[in-house]
Structures are given as structure tokens and as C-alpha cells.
Amino acid sequence: TQPNCLLVLELWPSDWFQLHTDLDMGNKNIKYVLAGEGAGTIFAINERTGDIHAMKRLDREEKAEYTLTAQVIDRDTNQPLEPPSEFIIKVQDINDNPPQFIEGPYKGSVPEMSQVGTSVTRVTATDADDPVYGNSARLVYSILEGQPYFSIDQTTGKVALAGMDREMREEYLVVIQAKDMGGHMGGLSGTTTVTVTLTDINDNPPKFTKGSYEFTIPEDLGIGKPGGRVKANDRDIGENAKSTYSIIGGDERDIFEIVTDAQTQEGILRLKKPLDFESKKSYNLTVVATNIRADSITGGPYMDQAMVKVIVEDADEPPVFTKSTYLFDVHENAAINTVIGAVAARDQDTTHSQVRYFIDRHTDLERQFNINVDDGKITLAKPLDRETDMWHNITVTATEVRNHSQISRATVAIKVLDINDNAPEFATEYEAFLCENGKPGKVIQTINAVDKDNPSQGHTFHYRLEMLNNPNFTIKNNLGNVIAKHDSFRRQKQDTYLLPIVVTDDGEPPMSSTNTLTIRVCGCSREGIVQSCNVEAFVLPIGLSMGALIAILACIILLLVDVLVPFSYHGLVCDIEETQERASNHQRRRGREGEHHPLR
Ligand SMILES: *[C@@H]1O[C@H](CO)[C@@H](O)[C@H](O)[C@H]1NC(C)=O
Ligand SMILES: *[C@@H]1O[C@H](CO)[C@@H](O)[C@H](O)[C@H]1NC(C)=O
């Protein structure tokens, strides 16, 4: 079924056209018939004239082509007068579709201050009309709103921007139009929007809220406690707005620091060391805030500078002693109420309160010292003895009269100086032995002495016998050597000598004591080795043993009753008594009494 005839028609909707046939010569006996796609529904034919018209509106975008056949037949016989002619109706495009932005609305972002022409995004509109025929689908883009910041390439739809500052405005709504018909009059148009967000760059420096700050900080503000806050604002956002703070001048004592409050981005002024109102009352600090990120444009640091004046406020502080430890000395023989020394403390606050002094009695349990409440003079309350306590280390306190809770303490170390108040004495109890047949001039004992005092130059002792010109013994002055003067000592005559020796030190004034040296006369070998001494005497010490004491008591009792006691009995008792005789002079006397009394 090859079309015999191909008609290419460009039909406008509701338009009509005419079929021509060679047979149509005004013959009223023919009629036109139509068959094929849309015949009788979309297309109708005038039987007489062959005019074809569209029965409804044709939409090229719905169906662009129809294939139909037309034939001329005899009206009476209905016999075809010629073979059917096939023809195609092509629906011609009309611009009945506006451009459409299928993907809109759009969003885009671009760093602020980007160069002119930096691409933001690209928009695309589509047009359902015939892209081939006419200009119905020839689109032209333009910006309706958003100039002069944005530009669009009219054919590609590329949206670009001109350099803009985020800090001026962060978001722009760009309205874009696409118009067909090449943008000419009568074309259809569609619009879309592009929301453009400018992203931040660090193009703004920090800026202190004030050129100078002033803070009043109490001198007792704790280390690390905030003393004031400064703030450098930054028009940028995020990391670009962050700054660190530092002190670049006016803090020679290295007392302050500034840390950044992560929440508020404020700089917190704190103390690293304590303030002291009394030594410095104000500071002029130079502080800087520096962006943590480099300047995006120059690459250098962004910073700002401000002055911070710190006024130190006086706080009530305890009085301050002139020394933390006082060292005094006093001679041990110092009189009661002697002034040993004075402490002093001062209230350094501007109020200059009066100060009162006390001794911490826990450190002076003996109440050895007194202190004058008003002038801090320490006096002696009780006699001292260096040989008992050489140091008295006490604590004194100073309190403010105005505020008793303001207390400070100092140590007072009192050294007791030596006075020669102790006499030397024998280092031990000496007991010497002398040979009956010993040679005269022999050293029978060397005496050593000790002394509780402690003179700085050391001790020198002098020894002498209490009895001048003792016929039996002598002593070397400085060495303490006791020497026998002759060789006629006999046990039977006297077996024990009690020799009083005077020891003297060389203090000022000198002190001395008398000590007794016991010398026993013994029998010796030819070589001068001691062999036998008086046994009882040797056993008995200077004092009395328990046994001796009992014997003495027994003797006394017997003496009291001896009038009634037989004579022979008495003799036995006094035998015991006689052994005691040698031990002590006292006993000797008593023994004699016992000897005489009962006999008569
Ligand atoms: C007392 O203080 C002095 C001096 O500080 C010191 O030498 C001495 O050892 C102290 N004495 C006592 C018992 O604390
Ligand atoms: C000296 O020794 C003799 C005995 O040898 C004695 O009689 C005399 O009393 C002694 N003198 C002194 C002072 O002890």
C-alpha cells in the first residue's frame, strides 16, 4: 500500500485545506471520502468540495503526524473514480509550550569575595516545542532579579557572580528567566530561582569592643580566678572569627595572663601570681587579639590591640613581721624580766591597724617568757638553765587590733648562753690502790674531771689537795696525778685513806668542788702487783650495804637494852660492829660509845 500521492501539509489547528483532484471538473456527481488515522474523528472532509478541516485542536506535542487516504467516488454508484491517494498530515509546531526549569529551584554556594565571573551553578530549562522548527524552543536565559551581583550566560545558563562580601549579605535569591523564541517578543517564558549562599572567608580582623578597658581587682584575688573580660569581635564566622588573646606589654612582673573563653570568645584576664597592693597599685597592660586563622587575603595574621588598666584594690591582710625567724640569745643567769629581744610586725594595709603580740603558749608550755602585747618585747619570766635547755624556740603571733582574724606568726629562737654555774667534779668515783712497799713519787691515780658548763674555749681544770702539806700524798696541779710521798704505808697502821681533792675550773668566776679519792693500802708482790687488800673494806663501798645497816640497827637496839643483857653476849655484837668502824667516821664514833658505855 504505497501511497500514490504524498502530500505534506503543515496544518494549523482549526485550519482547513483542500484536496484537489483532476477529476473534479464541477461534476456534481462525485464525492470525496477520507480514511486513515483520525478520519472522521480528528479530520473531516467536505464531500462536495474536498475541503479538509480539523475537528479539534491538534497538538504537535501529542501527535506530530497522521497518515490518511483520500478518494473520489461516484455519488450514485459509490464506485471509486480513481485510486485512493495517501497523504501525510504533519502538524506544524506552534509555540504553545513555555520553557520549564525541571530541576529548579536551585541552590548554590560560593566563597565570599570570589572573583567576578566565578561560577555559582548552572540552570537548564527545557521547552517541549519543536527544537528543529522555528524558534519555539530556542531559549535565552536572563536574570530578572539579582543584578548586578549575578550574571548568567544567556545560552548556557551558567550563573556567575561578581565579588561580594558575606558580611554585607549572606544569602541572595536570584530569579532567572528562560525565554523561547530566541528571547524575542511574543516568546513564552519560564522562571526559576537560585538561592546563593556566600561562604565565609577570613576577610575581617578581630576588633576589640573598646580601645581601653579598666578593671579593679582585689589584691587577694586567687590565682587563676577571673579578674576581668575583654572581647574582640570578628565579623567573620566560625573558625575565621576565633581569636587568641595575649599580653604584650605592661606585665613586667609576669603576673597576668589572658585565656580565651571557648563559649563566648572573650578573653579572661587572670592572675598567675598574687597581686600586692602595697608594692604596685595599678598596671597598664597592652593586650592583643589575634585570629587563629591567617588572613585569607594577605595571608598575614589579623590582630587588634587594646589597653587594659588594672587597678589593684587593697585587701585586708595580716600584719607582716620584720623577719620570719628571730634569733636572740640570753645568758642563763639573766634576771627575771630581762628583755631578751623584741619582735615587730606591721599592718601594711592602708588602714594601718595597731598590732598586738602574743606568745603561742603551745610552744612555751613552761611559760618561760613573756611578751609585751604592745611593743613585742620578750622578757624572761622564769630562770633559765642552759644545761637543761639550750634552745627555746617559741612562736609569736601578731594580730590586728581592728580585725582579730588577721594573724601572722614568726618563730623566735632563743639561745641560752653559758654561764660558769657548774663546778667540775670527778669523772667517776675513783678508788686507788697503794702498795705497802711502793716507791715514793709513784703516780697512784690520775684524776679526770668533768663540768656541765660549756665554755667556748674548752675546759682547763686545776687539782689540789684540800689539806696543804699533806705528809702522805701530793697531786700535780694540772694533770691530776696523785702521788705517794713516802714508802711507809702499813696496812696494820691504816689500810684506807680518804683523800679530799679540790677541782677548780677556769671560768669567770672559777667554780670548784671537793671530791674524795679512796686509797687502799694493799700488799703487793716484788714486782709491785697488788695482791691483798683489806677484804671487808674492799667489799664495802663508802655508803652502807644492806647487811651492814641491819647489823648497825641490831647493835643500836642491843645498846638500848644492854643493861639487862649478860656481858659475854654483848661482846659478840660489838665484834660485828667493829667491822663497820672502818667504813665511816660516824660509825666509828658510835662504836666507841658502844665500847665504853656498857662496860662501866
Ligand atoms: C631552735 O632553733 C635553732 C635556730 O633555728 C636551731 O638551731 C635549733 O636546733 C632549734 N632547737 C630546737 C629544739 O628546735
Ligand atoms: C699520814 O699517814 C700516817 C700513817 O702512815 C697517819 O698516821 C697520818 O694521820 C697520816 N696523815 C694524814 C694527814 O692523813
Automatic annotation (TrEMBL):
Entry keyword Repeat: yes
Pfam families per the UniProt record, alphabetical: Cadherin (PF00028)
Chain segments annotated as transmembrane: 538-561
Membrane topology: Single-pass type I membrane protein
SMART domains: CA (SM00112)
Subcellular location: Cell membrane
CDD domains: Cadherin_repeat
Entry keyword annotation includes Signal: yes
A biological process from GO: cell-cell junction assembly
Molecular-function GO terms, alphabetical: beta-catenin binding; cadherin binding; calcium ion binding
Record domain Cadherin: where: 21-101, 102-208, 209-321, 322-426, 426-538
Keywords: Calcium, Cell adhesion, Cell membrane, Glycoprotein, Membrane, Metal-binding, Repeat, Signal, Transmembrane, Transmembrane helix
Gene3D superfamilies for this protein: Cadherins (2.60.40.60)
A GO cellular component annotation in the UniProt record: catenin complex
Major location (coarse): membrane
UniProt-listed PANTHER family: CADHERIN-23, CADHERIN-8
Protein name in the entry: Cadherin-8-like
Organism: Sinocyclocheilus rhinocerous
